[in-house]
Design a protein that fits this description.
Layout lengths: L2 H20 L4 H7 E7 L10 H14 L4 E10 L2 E11 L13 E13 L2 E9 L1 H7 L10
Parallel strand pairs: 1-5
Antiparallel strand pairs: 2-3, 3-4, 4-5
Length: about 150
Amino acid sequence: MSGNSVSEAAKAVIRRNTDEVQSKGNFDLFEELFADDFVDHTPQPGGTPDKGGARKLYHALRAAFPDFHATIHWQTADGDVVTTFKTYHGTHQGPFLGIPATGRKIQFETVDAMRVQNGKITEHWGVANLFSVMQQLGALPPFPKA
């Protein structure tokens, strides 16, 4: 497979994860897409850096935000590593990071890089704007206006 073919196939796997698992809660597909030896190099606070930790995070997000979904703004790939910039959206209907449900709508940006090998996600590095989420949920004050 050429480098471009590898990159395009990897991007398709990441899009399926974003569109079908994260945005629609298809956890059977999660089991298919994530390698058993998956490593998360940037797990969320209190999470574990493995497939079980990613599964737990995805379930927690759907429990806290039942309408959780993502908009992909762009993706780029370098071989088998796909970098994606996206915005997540949802309505806070359950506990999240210790904050009880507020009913507030939130949105936050993320940039992540995921390695795909043999059609499975094997590694993840990411940054999410959780500070913004905490502000939107009323757990942190907004920045003062300049």
